[in-house]
Amino acid sequence: MREDLRAALRSLRQSPTFTLVALSVLTLGIGAATAVFSVVDAVVLRGLPFDEHDRLVAVLEHDMKRPVTFGGGTTTIQTFLDWRAEQRAFAQLAATGSTTFRLKTQAGEPADATAQRLSHEFLPMLRVMPALGRAFSADDEIDGRHRVVILSHGFWQRHYGGAVDVIGKVVELNEGPWEVVGVTPPGFEYPVATPKPTELYVPMPIREEDRSRARMSRSYNWLAIGRLKPGVTIAQAQDEMLRIMQGLDAAHPKWFDGRRARIVTLHHHLVGRVRSWMLLLLGSVILVLLIACANVANLMLARATVRAREMGIRAALGASGWRLARGLVIEGLVLSGTGAVFGVAAAYAGVSALTAWLPANLPRVTSIGMDIRVLLAAAGAALATGVIFGMLPALQSSRPDITNALRDGGRSMTSGKGGRLRSALVVAEVALAVLLLVGAGLFAGSFVQLMRIDPGFNYRNLISINVGIPVNVARLASAAPEERTRMIREAAKQGVPYIHDMMAAIRRVPGVENVAAVNGGVPLTGSWNRNVISLPGRGRLEGDGLDLDFRSVSPGYLEMLELPLRQGRYLNADDRGGSEKVAVINEAAARLYWPGRPALGERFTLNDEERVVVGIVGDIRHLGPESPVRQEAYVPLGETTSTALVIRTSRDPLQVLPGVKAAVWSVNKEQRLRGDVFTLEGYMDRMIAQRRFSMALLSLLGALGLLIASAGVYGVMAYVVAQRTQEIGVRMALGARPADVVRMVLRHAGMLIGVGLVAGSAAAWYLSFTVKSFLFLVAPNDVRIFSIAVVVLIAAGLAACALPARRASRVDPLIALRG
Prior knowledge:
Shape: globular
Oligomer: single chain
Number of strands: 22
Largest sheet: 12 strands, mixed
Mean pLDDT: 84
Number of helices: 24
């Protein structure tokens, strides 16, 4: 083996051009595959960092009238308490819900701390115990005793310097004292590996009204997670939850309205929405790796044919077929191993670039990195590729024709079998490149179609910030239900003057053109407010798609969004105190509720208030360019405890944002500004991030595949020209013109490229329907995209053949015949 290794290294040093080309191809293939695998492994393949994570499941409350979506399935606190009391399939059933707390930074500015509310079973269910202090107990869930907090390890280090005497200290959250009872162990966080990790964990408070369903108001804020008992399967747990839900539905017939419990693994719940997309990217990069393998195998086959005399001499001196094959396989492993080392080095840079381009809302994105699993995968890829492209020349050269090899007198020999194999590899490279280019074209077309969608308003240079009316949060949380309602009403009455003061301060900021307020959801932020409406003579319009999205807005809001006015007028300052309640609707509402007749002046009832339509404006895609237009109504802004301010700027919003924040705090220094994305361009960027990333990555992989396949075509044609030099000299001596020789070379290359194009196009046509769910307004069998991919490959193939064809046309017949 040592002799074979030395021989392999010596042979590679003696062929620097071959070695450099092969290593470059392998570095690209293995590096790209390793980088993409590191992302896919961290996001969807790796298990959750909890003991026996495969026994953890999410219990989701699903509306049977709507399609199943990932990431949803939350339930109410009343339903969770019933589940917890009646279930027998889980060792523990816990609940969690996200929230934020107000605290002050060292600079004295109000800030938000991300937090999770947990039932007392949550940490024991995950088999996680605090590094300091204790976990929550059942007593901590009692309203009034719930003011205890467990700090995350990072929060403890940043704010308390890792002091071991932190247990028992008091931290001010939401203007109230909370006692520190524990610190999580290092490395623990839930949700897992999010861009903004959880900083605080607090108990789930249970009030007396949460234990009954006397009032029909429901808040779906809790995710139920359970650990299956030993021996209990997901199917058995599903059957039990269906039985429990049937009993609850019978006891509370108007509460669930067709909702049922559904059980999935916790891993599937967290990453299921991106699993197919991630595996598609992994499959695409594997195609690049296969093209690289075929390319290097082709190079080694050509080199093995040139070395036929060497193999014949070694066989004549006593080398066995196994010894000859082993030497070539070891040479392939040396190449692939070296390529893997360079590929892993390239993958380190590639992972950083991929992570920067990945969508921010991708689950587990912060766990992406090069770890032992990724390195083992790279080593496995190197071993597999080395064996694959080392075995092909080994099989060809392990039984050399000794007599012909020695009689040849030093001239290389052309093997018909080897030539056919090399041609087959070129065909495979072209076919795989077609698959990549068609895939890249489909995703690029989807992105282009997405960017052509008009959202219906001008979202550029807009800032959105959420503000709340000042209220004593600590007093509100501890108040009785009647007192809490009274406090909220008092705060709501102060809302409009408070908001006007905020807007007046913001208008004075340099760079601010206008500001307006909206309740019910700012476009692109993912928020909405839907209600059932009633029409004269038709009553309540109940049913899927008949409800109305409504928003209460201040005067000037619609004009600031640059919504086109189709009929009537915009809202104005007199509408709030007018004798008649008014509304402006969009065109979709006019078409749905009053088809075939003018909607202006029509009346409808919303939230027990009759309103008259005074204006009709254009449609907005509030939930993003991929979401359909919905029917909407805009009404004058009334009493409120919180609202969103939308600010139009005359220059880059990020330059104006510090001044806007200062203006807000000049009115109320305790005002929190929620969220890490303030510009509407930022929200739009998040919505298109996944499609943009898919387009960019698949385009890059398609370009790599095209480059490697073109190199393969060039290498084979260059080798064919070199092998047929004497034949070409004879042809030219007998009268063949240079153009005839060029046509001969191009005909040979065209046959290989044509077969590859046919095979690749057929495979792409068949497989394109598997990616239909990933496309947007693009047919999976779009003829234009297929045609473009074919034309690009033909052009690249002809360019790759140009130099060998030119070299063939310049063969000197005398020199060729003398050789």
